[in-house]
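Lecture notes, continued. The same structure-token format from the folding unit now serves as the input rather than the output. Read the line below as a description of shape only.
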């Protein structure tokens, strides 16, 4: 018996080393294949993500509102009604943001084009003012012969040159839109038939996987689902809070485009911790089109607001909603963002929170067993 086990270990070890060698020596080809598979499956993955987000509203609508009605017709049609409610919710948000943001962007672009020469002079004067301690730099700025109109013409010329790739851009846009439409259809199908899909997968798993392993898998899936659900709800609430605070603060201090910038900062804040800075860059450019000096003041305002948000609001709202201490929220964002970029920043917090809950429950059970033994 021991001889058989030894042979199995040797075979298993050989297979592991063999597979590792194949992967290492063919890593480029494997990555190419994985990239191709991912591009093919991308609409399905996106559809699953859409279904997950929409299902949060669908479940809430069914449990809190539609289940309490006495109308048999509404109870019979509660799933289609709840799906329509979730879609209407997101469509209304998109339309409101578009109505706030797009007109203001077009207005700011017109202002920027009209006022660019004056803005350029203001920037030079501002830099001259802060460079008095550096005479050589000040002389270079004062003797600068760069023509603002020439710069503007150069920008227009560059935009015309880039227009040569307009066809590629249009093709990319249509490709993205096609993927979104396919993903939305998949998401709607999942939402309409989620009970039957769940039943089919349960039957498949029950016949293929031993019950002890299946129970552990369901436990992990349940913890992960609840954590991701709580995370996205908390992230949405946090983004609204930050967007409102930004808009109110900008209005109090008299910044231009206050509501628009606050809306953009709120939307980009859906990306944990760093998203507000992306919205801040947009806000800086908008304020710059009106007043360069105030644009730098806006950066100071946003840094202060982001410090308050990052140290107080985010750990409390998102951290408490997923049961993850504030310090681990920071660690999750820094580590996952460094390893996987924006995707890691978005998904790192709920993944770490899921692992934290699983390990916490495991440690608690181990401690209970130790206490019983003692």
């Amino acid at each position: 018996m021991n001889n058989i086990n030894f042979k199995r270990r040797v075979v298993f070890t050989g297979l592991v080393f063999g597979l590792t060698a194949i992967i290492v020596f063919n890593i480029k080809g494997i990555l190419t294949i994985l990239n191709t598979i991912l591009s093919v499956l991308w609409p399905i993955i996106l559809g699953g993500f859409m279904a997950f987000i929409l299902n949060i509203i669908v479940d809430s609508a069914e449990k809190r509102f539609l289940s309490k009605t006495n109308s048999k017709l509404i109870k019979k049609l509660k799933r289609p009604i709840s799906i329509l409610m979730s879609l209407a919710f997101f469509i209304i948000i998109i339309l409101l943001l578009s109505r706030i943001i797009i007109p203001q962007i077009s207005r700011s672009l017109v202002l920027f084009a009209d006022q660019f020469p004056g803005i350029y002079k203001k920037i030079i004067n501002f830099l001259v003012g802060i460079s008095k301690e550096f005479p050589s730099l000040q002389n270079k700025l004062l003797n600068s012969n760069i023509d603002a109109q020439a710069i503007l013409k150069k920008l227009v010329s560059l935009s015309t040159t880039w227009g040569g790739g307009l066809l590629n851009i249009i093709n990319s846009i249509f490709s993205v839109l096609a993927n979104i439409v396919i993903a939305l259809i998949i998401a709607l199908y999942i939402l309409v038939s989620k009970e039957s899909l769940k039943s089919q997968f349960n039957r498949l798993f029950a016949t293929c996987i031993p019950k002890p392993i299946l129970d552990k898998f369901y436990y992990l899936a349940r913890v992960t689902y609840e954590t991701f659900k709580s995370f996205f709800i908390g992230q949405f609430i946090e983004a609204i809070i930050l967007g409102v605070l930004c808009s109110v603060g900008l209005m109090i201090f008299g910044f231009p485009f206050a509501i628009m910038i606050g809306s953009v900062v709120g939307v980009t804040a859906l990306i944990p911790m760093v998203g507000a800075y992306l919205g801040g860059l947009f806000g800086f450019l908008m304020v710059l089109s009106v007043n360069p000096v105030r644009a730098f003041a806006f950066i100071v305002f946003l840094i202060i607001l982001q410090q308050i948000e990052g140290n107080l609001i985010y750990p409390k709202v998102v951290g408490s909603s997923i049961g993850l201490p504030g310090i681990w929220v920071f660690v999750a964002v820094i580590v996952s963002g460094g390893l996987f970029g924006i995707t890691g920043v978005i998904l790192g917090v709920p993944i770490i929170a899921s692992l934290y809950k699983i390990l916490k429950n495991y440690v608690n059970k181990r401690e209970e067993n130790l206490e019983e033994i003692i």
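Point for the exam: The chain has two domains: 43-193, 209-374.
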